[in-house]
Description:
Layout: H1 2-19, E1 28-32, H2 42-56, E2 59-63, H3 70-82, E3 87-90, H4 95-107, E4 112-115, H5 120-126, E5 131-132, H6 136-149, E6 156-159, H7 165-178, E7 186-188, H8 193-206, E8 213-215, H9 218-230
Parallel strand pairs: 1-2, 1-3, 3-4, 4-5, 6-7, 6-8
Helix pairs in contact: 1-2, 3-4, 6-7, 8-9
Amino acid sequence: MKKFLRTVAVAAIVVFGASQAAVADGERYVFIEHSPDSDSWWNTIKNALNDAEKQFGVTVEFRNPPTGDIGDMARIVEQAAASNPDGIIVTIPDFDALKGPITSAIARGIPVITVNSGTHEESEKLGALLHIGQPEFDAGKAAGKRAAKSGAKTFLCVNHFISSAASTQRCEGFAAGMGIPLANQMIDSGTDPSEVKNKVLAYLSANPDVDAILTLGPAAAGPTISALKENGLAGEI
């Protein structure tokens, strides 16, 4: 996984280099993601970006909204653009909220690549150079097929980022892989650990036949596992 993420980080810098003849020592890029400081998953990305810095002799500034607030993220994008970096790498957790700041950065002549959250279609609408990320529906579908092969008949998709089209696509893909409608089997869990746990417990109480759960990241996975341990279902679902 780390090798893959390092490759993604390097690929982003390479694309900027291709758009500007070559990457030059001293160039500065800004990487902006949507998660709060508490999301440790992004530490791996930071390590990959550090590797990219050393390999290309450039500076990559990592920025994110401390609490995960999308409004704060939009302002961070605006501030980054105002600093005139050689390129911006940004996630698209909420297309409508970030459309203005991202398109404004592109209008200033700043090359922009979108990564991780968001879709290829959204990236194209924004005018970004490209989107680096997996096809979320296909990823969810593959997981759904595996769950169905294991005997699962019903499921719960714990969506901690409901505003992201990509997150919903993964839940939809999971349902397709299992061969059943998504219907009400997706919940908007939010990212607060206690809230995620309580919502999962409530859903399982109302739907005791659930035999598979899909979470979309550490923000939901940890609290969901805690919920399963609390109600004695750990290892059963």
